[in-house]
Amino acid sequence: ESKRDGQQTYFSWAAAIIFFLSLNDAVQFKFTNFVCDVVNKSWVKLNQCRLRAVNRNETHLNFNLTLLHPVKKEVLVEIQLFKRENGYKPWLYKASIDGCRFVKKPYNPVAIIVYKLFKTYSNLNHTCPFEGFILLKKFNLKFEYLPNALPTGEYLLKLDWIFSKKLQLRTNAYFSFIED
Ligand SMILES: *[C@@H]1O[C@H](CO)[C@@H](O)[C@H](O)[C@H]1NC(C)=O
Ligand SMILES: *[C@@H]1O[C@H](CO)[C@@H](O)[C@H](O)[C@H]1NC(C)=O
Ligand SMILES: *[C@@H]1O[C@H](CO)[C@@H](O)[C@H](O)[C@H]1NC(C)=O
Ligand SMILES: *[C@@H]1O[C@H](CO)[C@@H](O)[C@H](O)[C@H]1NC(C)=O
Predict the structure, then answer these.
(1) Which letter does DSSP use for residue 95 in this model?
(2) Is rRNA processing among this UniProt entry's keywords (predicted)?
């Protein structure tokens, strides 16, 4: 009896692993473009903002900027998510995040997903203040962190970075999520 149970457990694990691997193959979640736009060059110096295609389903973002003055406490990040349907029309989602509060204790569900996606590739893993280099190295998108219900499509995630109540930097991430 118990041997058979053991075999059944073994087979269902194997099935789960095979299912997971085939799911892994069927999902494509990658950057298609990434645009950085510095508004205030006396605060932000952009050193690198470049995508590199690694293979058919993977692109890496390398991002490197210098904060020429420290960002002590007032950081607002305006998030807008668009889905392309004959152009990027109305946003699907919009929120304003208090950056310093967020890195202390993440609090918005969409911002938490975005943060999980890039955190391990970046040096944005501490609390305020921020100064000097802000880096993302070989950042590629991993679908494990996504909610289950993201429809297949082309998306744009706009982040506007506001320090001292003024827009200083814009980053526009274009990505595709394709599930067969
Ligand atoms: C991407 O494609 C490569 C082969 O080109 C494959 O080995 C890899 O598992 C794929 N990655 C994902 C996330 O689908
Ligand atoms: C641009 O950045 C400088 C700091 O280098 C700051 O003093 C100034 O207020 C900023 N200008 C705007 C319009 O935000
Ligand atoms: C970031 O850019 C600066 C200036 O170009 C460069 O000196 C530095 O090595 C870069 N850092 C990384 C980790 O690529
Ligand atoms: C933050 O990231 C840097 C660079 O990846 C790493 O050296 C450091 O240990 C990390 N710090 C924390 C608190 O996780």
Answers:
(1) E
(2) no
Distance 133 CA to ligand 4 centre (A): 13
151: DSSP letter: P
Q: CB neighbours of 91 closer than 8 A, spacing ≥ 6?
A: 80, 81, 82
For ligand 4, atom 10, which residue shows the shortest CA distance?
A: 125
Each residue's pLDDT tens digit, 145-172: 887 778 899 999 999 999 999 999 999 9
Atom 10 of ligand 3, nearest CA residue: 64
Interatomic CA distance for residues 110 and 127, integer angstroms: 19
Which of 82, 99, 78 has its CA nearest to residue 90?
82
State if pTM tops 0.85.
no
β partners of residue 157? 81, 173
Q: What tokens appear for 132 in the block?
A: 């000097």
Using the predicted structure, report yes or no on whether residue 81 has a pLDDT greater than 60: yes
Instruction: Indicate the pLDDT class of residue 29, thresholds 50, 70 and 90.
Output: very high
> Can you give the pLDDT at residue 156?
95
Q: Which CATH architecture describes the domain 30-179?
A: Distorted Sandwich (2.70)
